[in-house]
Amino acid sequence: MVDGTRVFFQIPHIVDDSVHVFAKNARINSDIRKLCMLGELAFMEWDIICFSETRCLTEDSILHGNHRLIANLSTKSASGVAILIHQKHVSNVLRQYRVSDRVLSINIRFGGKLVRIVAVYLPHAGYAWAEFVEVMDDIIALVTEAQDQGKAVIIAGDFNISLGIGDRGEALQELCNLFDLKIANDGGHADDIDKWTFKSSMGELRRIDFILYSKALTCHDGRACDELDLGSDHRSVRSSFWYTRPNKRLKRRKKSMRGWRPKLNSENIPDEYHAKLDSIKRRFKGSSSITITLP
């Protein structure tokens, strides 16, 4: 009130068109853990959370606040993935793909754009190479179909991999090269405060949790953080995305592979690469292990 006259200040309404995505390794296999999770989320800005090693007991549930938790059940002690969707996006979930106890995917609409979100939990080096390859094949199949349908892709979770180190780290790099995916929490050194996601028993700081995304999205904040603790020994990875409007001229161009080349045989023919892609496509189209569920 100024000189007896009421003065009203109009606070501008700021609209945040960003989509805030988190990757987190944490168990959410009890009502108490879920309540703790919701308590932390009440003070955070978030839209989607991809969980790894969840050990969930229910496949699909509506939590307090009308947030939706979609999960894969698992009989194994160290597996399970889940995707938590904020209540404001629940009605935009179009389809679920329950691939395995390590791979779960949904199609969701953000601002008129379709996005396939894939939650993953890759086996660590103590598991057989064949099990690692099986999970990677499932991821490749989901991304291949999504890109063929013009969807943007976000892959998030505990990869149990240090990028570019060893056969598994190189496989992750090849996955990014093959589909022209970017890594939200890439760059810098793995032990930087905003990069490392896991501290080993020997005190080594490692970056093994990642968020990958397609070039149809623009990431303006990708980093490791201490938000959403949940008593886990992994830090969270968070990223915020804007949409990049498709350029019709660029759309007609041949897709760039950024210098990547498949391995050639003695006759300079990439027969192994083509055989693998054909096998993945046949497996995905005819697989009975992938359960597709409408909301």
Q: Notable features of this structure?
A:
single chain; 295 residues; alpha+beta; seven-stranded mixed beta sheet; 5 helices
- Envelope shape: globular
CATH class: Alpha Beta
Query: What oligomeric assembly is this protein in?
Result: single chain
Mean pLDDT across the residues is 82
Q: Count up the domains.
A: 1
- The number of helical elements comes to 5
Q: Could you give the count of β-strands?
A: 16
Measured on Cα atoms, how large is the radius of gyration?
Answer: 20 Å
| CATH topology title | Deoxyribonuclease I, Chain A
- Biggest β-sheet strands, sense, barrel: 7 strands, mixed
Give a summary of the structure in a few sentences.
By secondary structure, the protein is α+β, with helices and mostly antiparallel strands.
